[in-house]
């Protein structure tokens, strides 16, 4: 058989010419030479050549698709423009489904990607945090509700909120060190930059999850106590000097009898004075809203600041959240709360939007 008629296949499986030259290797060398000409005055590294080759291959693959890309860009802009009003309408008209979807997305999407990319440190921290909050949710949904449960739950979420806030601040300080290269040889390393960004992420992510979980707990506990309702007027009489958030008396940290006496009480009467409530305890700070309803300071903080409620727990009158910028709540913490909402979009809604866009592009045959 003539040599020209033989299959032109190299030992590795690549095509070769009649003289035995590997055509693929020649083409690769030519492309590398063309790419190297883009870096005038210096020799590019292998990574730079590889990225340049990938960019040129991408351009060649999508050549002539400008009109299709323009349509995809218009769809992307339209989805982004429609997202905020759609989310606001969803949150206003269907708050339960919105809250469940929001909590589900921020609780499940980051661990999924972390597990898929083998970020086991984040997965381990997430599992520990999930186990602790599962127990908290169990306490908040028990019926009858123990009188001290609301206070303990608000204290727990206030603690997690403060810890998350401190982690966020530490991460921001470390990131500023990286930005200004405060310690050359340390703050300009890839490991230091990565750890500073991870610290910021941990502070924002777990702070966001805590705020959403305490919102669920506060509504469930308020419904169990019966003093607060989601709409309309409360149907249960609120005795004078009782905090309707936790059902405990104002002024004392613990004015009730021992646990056995309290557990024997029906939860419909939580907060009502009785003959066993005679033990004095240290005074606890209280806070009065503009509607003249008074609460424990830690309870109303848990309801409004941590629990994201902007109404009075009893009469549902609008609460001016600006009043919480005075002591004992710092103004910086309110900025942190605002940053958490941006974090919600980043870890919760952004993946869902990308999935929606991918579905739309697939249906329309756009790639």
TrEMBL record:
UniProt xrefs under InterPro entries: RNF121/RNF175, Znf_RING, Znf_RING/FYVE/PHD
Residue stretches spanning the membrane: 70-89, 96-113, 119-141, 162-183, 195-214, 342-364
Alphabetic keyword roster: Membrane, Metal-binding, Transmembrane, Transmembrane helix, Zinc, Zinc-finger
Chain ranges of the RING-type domain: 243-315
Location of this chain's protein in the cell: Membrane
Gene Ontology CC entries for this record: endoplasmic reticulum membrane; Golgi membrane
Topology class, membrane: Multi-pass membrane protein
PROSITE patterns: ZF_RING_2
Coiled coil: none
Family annotation (SMART domains): RING
GO molecular function, one term: zinc ion binding
Principal location: membrane
Example GO BP: ERAD pathway
PANTHER family recorded: FI05221P, RNF121 PROTEIN
Name by which UniProt lists this protein: RING finger protein
